[in-house]
Amino acid sequence: MEALPFLGPAALYMISMTITPGPNNVMLTASGANYGFLRTLPHIFGILGGCFLLFAGIALGLGLVFERYPLVQTGLRLVGSAYLLYLAWRIATAPPPDLRQRGEGRPLSFWQAAAFQFANPKAWVMGLALMAGFLPEGGDTVVNALLLAGFAELVGLPCIALWAGFGTAIGRWLDGPRAWRIFNGVMGGLTAACVYFILG
């Protein structure tokens, strides 16, 4: 019951953070266009699963690592930026769907998407602010952390799924290899541009 007053503001916070552009949403748009909504579902649920573990971990003490060891944050930014550039290159150089050979080009798996959240500075910032601002002080900390993290991902699900659906809709309008190459190039460029905000 103590958590109930926090749920409304926490939901508004999560909507504002998950529906706005960021590395996850740009990649979901590209994946939806290239592979369709259904094949992008593992990517969607990987983001949710990774954020759930990250947010709960932050509430249970993982966030203290950032405070005590600033070099960890710097290292995380560098690792996250390098991996994001790799993903951007994969997106930008992906061939059009009708020119792919069987097995060539795959959307991110559940585990790849989940692991990326631990190297995604936006996910860290989101989790730190969520737990610092909305975790109830009373009651069992572990239970509250798990409930808040789960609620946050429940709110985030339709927001990020919207981006995958948007990409799927775009994919139906793209006609010919040239249009696909331009689209994938733009998506790759937008993904790479997120590095500026990470390192800036």
Automatic annotation (TrEMBL):
Bilayer-spanning residue ranges: 6-23, 44-65, 71-89, 110-134, 146-170, 182-199
Protein's UniProt keywords contain Transmembrane helix: yes
Cellular compartments annotated: Cell membrane
A GO cellular component entry from the record: plasma membrane
Name assigned to this protein: Lysine transporter LysE
GO molecular function annotations of the record: amino acid transmembrane transporter activity
Protein's membrane topology: Multi-pass membrane protein
Keywords: Cell membrane, Membrane, Transmembrane, Transmembrane helix
Taxonomy, superkingdom: Bacteria
GO biological process: cysteine export across plasma membrane
One Pfam entry name: LysE
